[in-house]
Structures are given as C-alpha cells and as structure tokens.
Amino acid sequence: MTAKIFIDGEHGTTGLQIRTRMADRRDVELLSIPEVERRNAGMREDMLNSADIAILCLPDDASREAVKMVAGNNNVRIIDTSTAFRIAPDWAYGFAEMDDAQAGKIRDARYVANPGCYPTGAIGLIRPLRAAGILPDGYPVTVNAVSGYTGGGKQMIAQMEDSSRLDKIAANNFLYGLNLKHKHVPEMTTHGLLDRAPLFSPSVGRFAQGMIVQVPLFLEDLKDGATLESVHAALAVHYAGQDIVEVVPLEASSILPRIDAEELVGRDTMKLYVFGTPGAAHVNLVAVLDNLGKGASGAAVQNMDLMLSA
User: N or C: lower Cβ tally within 10 Å for the chain?
Assistant: First the structure.
C-alpha cells in the first residue's frame, strides 16, 4: 500500500533534501502544495489531514499551528523537524540509535520529534557514557561544534553565497550563540541524560554541508579507573549491531592526522571517534555527520520508514 506523505515546508532547505531522498521511491505518494500557495492555510490543512504522515519543516510556531490542525484526526502521524517538541514527554525523540528501545518507540508513535543536528552528535557521544555510569552526575560537560552553513537555512545560505547582499557574511568561520543560551541545550540535557546543562559553543564554517561535534573529557573526573580504552568500549558496545552509527576503532583513529567536517556529506550516517593517548589524562570524543543527513533530512526519512514499518 502506498503511504501518503506531506512535507509541510517542502520548499525550505530541509524539505527539499527530504524530497530528493524520496524522489525515486514507489512506496510513497508525495502530496504537494505549489510554492505560491505555501501560506494558504486552508490548503495546508487539507493536505495535512489527507496524509498518512506529515513531515513538518517549519519554524517552531508554525509547527505548533500545524499540529493543532490535525489534533482531531488520529489517522495522521507527525514528524516535526523544529525544536518545538523535542523535549515534550508525549513525543518520541527521533534518534533511533539512542538506546535499544528507541526505534520501537519511534515506530509506534503518533508524534515524533526529529533531533537537531548538533544534539545528534552530542547525545550520540554523551548518552552511552551516562548509561554505562562512566560520566558521573554533575560533570561539567562541554560541547564544541562546527556546522556547514546550510544549517542556518535559506537566509544564511544566501548570506554566505551572495557577495552582493548588504547583509552578506564575509567571515570564513564564526562563532554564534555567544550568550550560551542556544535552543539546543535543553535537548542535549534531556536526551543526554545529563543532570547539569552542558556548555555549548557552536560555530559555522564556509562549507555548505558537514559537521564536527566535540566533547572533551578529563579522565580523572570520570568513573574511577576510566581510560581511553574503556570510554571507547562503552561507545562500541552501545552501538553494536547497527549500521547507521559507526564507532571507529581506536587503532584507526590513532593514525589519523586530521578530521574532515565534510567526510560524510551526502550520507545519512554518523561516525564517532575517541582520541587520546593511552595513559594520558584526557580524551576527546568526536562525532562527524552531515548536518542535512543524519542531522536533519536523512533522520526524518529514517524515522518515516520506521513509522511505516509499524
């Protein structure tokens, strides 16, 4: 049976990427609104209520509005890519590899909140260590990250690519979120199982797609006896048996001269690395992903496929 899928916000960066991923599929029928009608509330509501699954690629307030439009229609299921519902208790968090039960929760849910790109990397690194008891209560977690500029949507893409704009961005790399109140922090805290909000420092580079997320740790402040090897082993055990998140062997990591933020562009997977020297006092956990792949559109399609498998 062909599933009807409506992408509300299909003409934005994330929506376009989702459409591209489903262009050749025969098991889904894409419902669509012409771009000139994208603000036609009546047409949107009709499309939303005609879908088996609606994927919302909208700002937070518009997503909340769309959810209200289908509240009384139990036949419609929702995947929301905004930040509006990512820590809502009645929404499944759409990071299937987060723990053993998460894929099943996504499969059976009516409402699924797609993760943010930065939190996917951060939670992917942090949660296994919290679950294993290696990262203790109260640890002052720091998350440093750089993303391709497509993560900022159409406006930032234009600011980075069109040098004739008055509001062009001339910097090759820049920090933002300098008030340390980034909207992804609650998501990292909740789904990273943290009892203390992390210090998150995001940045953007002059490359379109790709992402590096780093979580540096002091071994002496972790569980007694924690080592480079035991930290790596906790990640490897957590993600054993699945092929979306790869934990790179220590031997392979130890010979790398550098990490490329664009390594996984065009792919919907994520790589996790553990760097350090045996016997040293520190380790650096690193996640590499495509901010529009496993960090956004790829994750939305993965979640859709899980929901369709129910």
Answer: N
Task: Output the six-digit token pair for 107.
Answer: 């499969």
Distance CA 159, CA 127 (A): 35
Q: Kindly state the tokens that stand for 213.
A: 């997320």
The closest of 37, 5, 2 to 21, measured between CA atoms, is: 5
Q: What is the pTM of this model?
A: 0.95
The string of DSSP letters for 187-207 reads HHHHHTT-SS--EEEEEEESS
Q: Could you please report the per-residue DSSP string of 95-114?
A: -TTSSTTHHHHHHH-SEEEP
134-171 residue pLDDT tens? 999 999 999 999 999 999 999 999 999 999 999 999 99
Among 54, 117, 215, 274, which one carries the catalytic annotation? 117
Tokens of 290: 């495509």
Distance (Å, rounded) from C-alpha 292 to C-alpha 116? Answer: 10
Tell me if residue 74 falls in helix, strand or coil: coil
Q: How many CB atoms lie within 10 A of CB 277?
A: 10
- Residue 1 structure tokens: 């049976």
- Cα distance between residue 89 and residue 123, in whole Å: 17
Active site residue 117: yes
Antiparallel, parallel or unpaired: β 111-113 and 92-93? parallel
d(CA 199, CA 181): 9
> Across the chain, where does the E strand assignment appear?
3-8, 28-31, 53-56, 77-80, 92-93, 111-113, 142-148, 173-175, 199-205, 211-218, 245-247, 270-275, 282-289
The pLDDT value given to residue 106: 98
